[in-house]
Amino acid sequence: MAESAERWEAADAGPRGVGRVRRRPGAAAFQAGWAYLLIVGMWVRSTMAYRLSFVMTALGNFAATALDFVTIVLMFAHVRVLGGFTLPEVAFLYGTTSTAFGVADLLMGSMDRLGRRVRDGTLDTLLLRPVPVLAQVAADRFALRRLGRITQGLLVLGWALMRVDVAWTPVKVVLLPVMLVSGAAIFCAVFVAGGAFQFWASDASEVQNSVTYGGNTMLQYPPGVFARELVRGVTFVVPLAFVNWLPALRILGEPDPLGLPGWVDFLSPVVAFCCCALAGAAWRAGLRSYRSTGS
After folding, report:
1. CA distance 281 to 171
2. Which of 10, 102, 202, 230 could form an S-S bond across to 115 if both were Cys, CB 3.0 to 4.6 Å?
3. How high is the pLDDT of residue 22?
4. Residue ranges of the alpha helices (H) in the chain?
5. Burial class (CB in 10 A: 0-12, 13-18, 19+), 249
6. CA distance 230 to 227
7. Which domain holds residue 79?
């Protein structure tokens, strides 16, 4: 027990030991979080120096993302149900995934630029700083305008909660915020894993976007409108179904198209933890494999 408590680990170990700092796991996490907040604070201050520009870009982000929901509303101008879901129920799906994804995009959306740093060699600069590389990459060019997406998702979710026909119980009330937090964590893990993949395939940012942005778009619609094989894939391979599909089915009282046991609907926090652990392992493996371009 004493040896376990005193064990030291390397955090964000760079290639061939570059940037390797021996520290306790708790201290490493605290340092990474603190560094992330400091960098974010710098970018926020820079953004707020031009308040009108921030307001305009945030409104533009709000309007651009709102078009997705406008498309859904136009669909329901011609049909009463979509995949067995009414408009308020689809709005519930839309609001939950848009909010969760918006938070993840705000916190980790800069990960898709890692491939560019790998190609042009600017990642070397981050490796030489006494700050965890993941914190630097994630907080780089922190885009406060992405609050527009979160605001729009919350507004749709609020409207859905007022219109949806749900028999609320204490379990369902607790499940809603747990779903949002877990969903954001799952999307954050996907962003980190996608960034790690760019260590080996530096031109793969669009592959990452197809899973993150594409996954968010898919989760805005009922699972019943997709092929069963695709639903299985986003449940057991890339577990995006735990962002909102499975817990939302429990809240809305809708049947599970895969016929999974009822307790699976409550596994979002467990899946989020596992996804974050796997993403962290992938990140460390990618960082260890990195070789400088020499430029």
Report:
1. 33
2. 202
3. 53
4. 2-6, 25-48, 51-75, 87-108, 114-120, 123-127, 133-139, 147-163, 170-197, 205-219, 228-232, 245-252, 268-289
5. buried
6. 5
7. 22-289
As for how many domains the chain has, the answer is 1
Residues 241, 265: contact at Cβ < 8 Å?
no
Q: How confident is the model at residue 136 (pLDDT cuts 50, 70, 90)?
A: very high
> Is residue 63 assigned to a domain?
yes
**Tokens representing residue 251 in the block:** 């809240």
Non-local CB neighbours of 265 within 8 Å, separated by 6+ positions? 175, 246, 247, 249, 250, 256
Q: Two tokens at 84?
A: 């067995």
- Residue 280 burial (CB count, 10 A): 15
Tokens of 172: 């369902």
Q: What is the pLDDT of residue 244?
A: 95
Helix axes 205-219, 87-108, angle to 10 degrees: 150
pLDDT score of 20 more than 70: no
Q: What is the pLDDT at residue 8? A: 30
- pTM score, two decimals? 0.88
- pLDDT tens for each residue of 138-196: 998 898 999 999 999 999 999 999 999 999 999 999 999 999 999 999 999 999 999 99
Identify whether the C-beta of residue 142 lies closer than 8 Å to the C-beta of residue 110. Answer: yes
CA distance 173 to 120: 48
In a domain? residue 237: yes
Asked, for residue 8, whether it belongs to a domain, the answer is: no
CA distance 80 to 78: 7
Radius of gyration in angstroms for the set of CA atoms belonging to the chain, rounded to a whole number? 20
**Six-digit token string for 43:** 């970018």
Mean pLDDT of 16-25: 51
Q: Is residue 203 domain-resident?
A: yes
Is it the case that residue 202 has pLDDT exceeding 80?
no
